[in-house]
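Re: weekly structure request thread

Next one in the queue (118 aa):
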Amino acid sequence: MTIQRIKPLLGDSKRSRIIRVKKSSRTQGTNQPTFNRLTVVWVQNNGVPFDTTGFFARLSRGNTLVSTASFDRFGVVRFNNIRTLTNVSYTLRVFSSNGTLFRTRTIPAGVQTFAIIG
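Done, posted below.
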């Protein structure tokens, strides 16, 4: 049975939040990031990714555009020129193929992946 993926709604759910995890005092192996480039995933409230065919995202720092990348059809966009763990915060803007702004989020410093929920 396949899950039907839907296109995201234009209205913003405003349910985004940053969850901070307390770092363990024990270290295991190396502290290398799993992803070497910044990756953003856009999912529904139940965790199923949206069908983001034709959507694109712009990453900026202040008023300076840093990168633009296209989503694949599984709700994932990868910024190839942004190494992880990020050392500065970025503003992420997500647009449809016709240029309609859907979401605006702030990606904090120190992340390798970011999820847009809703």
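The mean pLDDT is 85. The radius of gyration is 15 Å.
Next request, please.
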